[in-house]
Amino acid sequence: MAAKRAAAFALGILLPLANSLTIEGMLGAPRRSTANVNPSGKLALFSSTSYNWDTKKSSTTWQVLDVASGKTKEAPFGSEVSEIVWIGDTDTSILYINGTNDNIAGGVTLYTADLGAKKFSPSLVASLEAPFQGLKAAQTKSGDINFVVNALARWDDGSAYNSELATSPATSGRVYDSNYIRHWDVYIASERYAIFSGPGTSESKLYC
Ligand SMILES: *[C@@H]1O[C@H](CO)[C@@H](O)[C@H](O)[C@H]1NC(C)=O
Fold first, then answer.
1. If you count DSSP H runs as helices and E runs as strands, how many of each does the chain have, helices first?
2. Which superkingdom heads the taxonomic lineage of this protein's source (predicted)?
3. How far is the CA of 118 from the centre of ligand 1 (A)?
4. Which of 5, 81, 98 is nearest to 45 (CA)?
5. What is the per-residue pLDDT across 89-131, written as a single tens digit (0 to 9) for each?
6. Strand 123-128 relative to strand 133-139: parallel, antiparallel, unpaired?
């Protein structure tokens, strides 16, 4: 009897949950990135991406986690920010990739900001000419911030490749000097990933 009652009780708890699990619900549930802890260990940043079935679009918010209390609050920026590192003059300083660039189509921008400041006021560090990613940064003793990022590089001069600015040849023919020209149904392009580094000044030039 007791076992039956316990089973009924368990079902009562589990059923509403089971009913609410739909495929759409699961696929639309927020996907969170790993949290990235700041130098003092007090705050962490993570992103949360959800898919909206009505608009058929996904959107990303960034959340600031107070490590001690577990409370989160939404960061003052959203989907346009693709990567963030904690670095700068204070424990709450960040350097991030803004995936948009008003001046260069297909490019990105680097900004710094202080999340501890009363008002969020980002400042532009660099305007980059290609869709760079994989941001890593270090601060030198003199306070400069040096960073590395990666992007596809052009085969002929090694400069960063921006598909939106590349001129497409008048012919679809390709010249290969090796046997390996195709991987499954994708023809191997000549661009390869390369690492670029730059100083955290307003200069946009990156060194390969
Ligand atoms: C991202 O860059 C756009 C310009 O391309 C700017 O308007 C926007 O404020 C930037 N957002 C952040 C969070 O830096």
1. 2, 14
2. Eukaryota
3. 19
4. 81
5. 999 999 999 999 999 999 999 999 999 999 999 999 999 999 9
6. unpaired
Exposed (0-12), middle (13-18) or buried (19+): which is 194, by Cβ within 10 Å?
Answer: middle
pTM of structure? 0.81
The token duo for 28 is 């639309």
- CA–centroid distance for 116 within its chain: 21
Determine the length of the chain: 208
pLDDT exceeds cutoff 90 at 198? no
Which residue among 80, 82, 128 is best mutated to probe the pocket of ligand 1, counting the most ligand atoms within 8 A of its Cβ? 80
- Ligand 1 geometric centre to CA of 35 (Å): 23
Alpha-carbon Rg of the chain, whole angstroms? 23
Q: Is the dihedral of CA 4, 9, 10, 14 positive or negative?
A: positive
Instruction: Write out pLDDT tens, residues 152-173.
Output: 999 888 899 999 998 888 988 8
pLDDT for the residue numbered 121: 96
Please give the number of the atom of ligand 1 that sits closest to the Cα of 122.
14
- Structure tokens that stand for 185 in this block: 């149904």
Closest ligand 1 atom, residue 96 Cα: 14
Task: Count Cα atoms within 13 angstroms, Cβ side, for 51.
Answer: 10
